[in-house]
Design goal:
The complex is a heterodimer. Chain A is α/β, with parallel strands linked by helices. Helix content of chain A is about 45%, strand content about 20%. In chain A, the strands form three sheets. Chain A has a seven-stranded mixed sheet, with helices on both faces. In chain A, strand 10, helix 9 and strand 11 form a beta-alpha-beta unit. In chain A, about 60% of the residues are buried. In chain B, about 40% of the residues lie in helices and about 10% in strands. Chain B is globular and about 50 Å long. In chain B, helix 1 packs across helix 3, helix 3 packs parallel to helix 4 and helix 3 packs across helix 9. Chain B has ten helices and seven strands. Chain B is an alpha/beta fold. Classes of the chains: A alpha/beta, B alpha/beta. Chains A and B meet through helix 4 and helix 6 of A and helix 5 and helix 6 of B.
Chain lengths: ~325, ~280
Amino acid sequence: MKLTGIREAYGETLAALGELYPEIVVLDADLSGSTKTSLFAKKFPDRFFNMGVAEQNLMGTAAGLAAGGKTVFASTFAIFASGRAWEQVRYSIVYNKLNVKIVASHGGVTVGEDGGSHQSAEDIAIMRVLPGMRVIVPMDGKEMQEVIKAVVKIPGPFYIRSSRVKFPLILGDDYKFELGKGKILREGKDISLIGCGLMVSHCLEAAEILAKEGIAARVVSLSTIKPIDEELLIDCALNTCGIVTAEEHSVIGGLGSAVAEVLSEKNPTRIVRVGVQDKFGVSGSAPDLLEYLGLKPGNIVKAAKQIMEHRSQKTEQAVQAAK
Amino acid sequence: MLDTEQIKKLESLAKTIRVDILKMLNQASSGHTGGSLSTVEIIVSLYFYKMRHNPKDPTWPDRDRFVLSKGHGAPALYTVLARSGYFDLSELMHLRKLGSILQGHPDMKVTPGIDISTGSLGQGLSMANGMALALKLDKRPSRVYVLMGDGENQEGQIWEAAMAAAHYKLDNVCGIIDHNGLQIDGPVNEIMKIEPIADKWACFGWEVFRVNGHDFREIISALDKAETVKHKPTLIVASTVKGKGVSFFEGKVEYHGIPPTDEELAKALVELGIKS
């Protein structure tokens, strides 16, 4: 599969949009080379502000610029954008419904070698909890491009997760992003595999493996985690035997939790969450860490089989009881 | 500069505003008395002398902005906004009540005239800098005034923002510190020493002025001078008295976050020359 750079897609799209939207300003906290806001900075030096290693001030300044009518993109690593500056994001930006798009690079654990200090397996949870915050985790470079083009036209705050590593290209040229809508990438009647970010490609790989074993898996990308696509989730619950969620994030508070919140109220369904199991990451290469933390296609396959076995046991019990 | 007659008018207005503040806090049975009373002359100088603003058009793009970074001083700001004509004076009596346009801390979403929400200490200067950058990008002549508490200077974000304002040469930012020397737990320099505060700001690249924060002539003179400084932000360290204007509140730590009781209100109104 062809790989696409997520942060590259962000930086290039933003630099292109800079021409069309003179109200766009971009802020970074000494990581513009990594987040790729440097591409915008080079083209529009007067509309780029490097705030130095000071993320709280980065978010506060972003809020002030937005209050002054600007469309603000604020970028740094996910752990600092969401964690270090959480209360500034909460009160300076989201409380005021200000037009700041936080595009946070190096999300998840595929930051890799830098280790637990720089990995971010908690950001979706702590951004999602903020009232009115929209949270998007694009599945490939194409989607990142479309997300950036879309959010520039939607007022108010967003948290968009970018990544250090490249993701396999999944979407075609005709893809259009729609906020709050999941996408069925593959149909299957037995089980639903729902992922975001890098894990969407792992869900697709898992579906291939399951197909060989006679299990037909539906694969859904749920890139918008908030607002969530309730309709599609209920459809998955009604039309397949269960759901596996997959995310490069803690199983606490992220995509899996969001899906479980909806379905436990609207249509209780068996859900198994593949993700980081309440632990911190360590140093290692991205592929080694995905293996170590249980985020590989094989983990999704295992979770799917767990649901299918549970279901056949229940069917067995029902048949016995009927006798 | 103003003549004696104009200064007298401002002094009389300050007294009216102190009465409003005490009445609204008493009615709310909640809120910050000491740190509201200490800011009165500063906020009155801004809204009734220095700032270009239009109560009939609160979002006028060319207005000067005000950021009350020490958001707990909201009662003083609300009173000044009401007396300027942003909303009816009767709103003051709904302070902190459910459904009121006057939240416990300033909220841009519900109160006409509030340029940005504040109250979580340390966040105001960063937002003021952002506004100032936007004004410069748009080539507007407006200025941004930001009032901070002295205890608030213990927040790290203030210093991140202080560095950034000087770095970006934000001469349209004017900071003011309400230096009343007290915070919730006690005297500022016993809780966490901030002195020499003026030197610290000067070291960070700001042009610093010192004034008596209850003397209109000094405040206004500093505000006028600040406007002439180019290529660097300005800071006015205003020495004030917490609880100013009511003898039994002045300099008392315990009146940081406590409203006046009915009895205290009655006594205070007598001191301020109001009979009932």
